[in-house]
Amino acid sequence: MSKKENLKILQNNLGVNFMNEDLLDLALVHSSYINENPLIHSDSNERLEFLGDALIGLVLADYGYKNFFIYDQGDLTLFRSALARKSTLAKLAKSFKLGFFLYIGIGEEKSLGREKDSNLSDAFEAIVGAIYLDQGFNFTYDFLIKTFSNEIKNVLKLSEFKDSKSTLQELVQQKGYLSPIYDLLEVIDKGKDKIFIVEVKIGFKKQNLKSYGIGKANKISLAEFDAANKALTNFNSQ
Fold it and tell me: How far is Cα 45 from Cα 121, in angstroms, rounded to an integer?
């Protein structure tokens, strides 16, 4: 199969139509290949890999910041790191069958280089760098969020990413209580800003609900998280 045919198949796998296919071709060149084939390729994909690595970190950080407002700096760092680790990138590379398309040296071929997580994750980063140079940032952003969508869902299932409301609900249901009920007690109007005060109640029956926490914030959702966080402390200490 010719190089042009291979690149066409890979573009179909990626869902990206490159304007400059040379960028995609370069993203597939492992450093071991240019050592043995200097007349065919004079550069490896390492510069594109550097660019792609930075883009992945930026996009995941931006997505986490804009979508998970209850996470602090440490949580956001953990979120990004869990997704950008080499094993995850290699898994994504395998979903596009990148290993088949890599240019690698004979020695690397013999050592099953097409299956190595390090080579695959590096190639994925290089592909991202190539997409950015060819299609621009907005397209690359959408490509990455779509590509990472299942991995994001998997990461959010980890216990360290469960928010206080989810944790509280699981806890009370395990002990036979009704799901927590959140009541808006008051809205304090401060001109352009508003403060929402929310109370969370828990009980076995609706007639016997008890207040376990009151939260305050500039959004109802944040006030509920604040109330749930306080309720966790009070509920566990009873």
Answer: 12
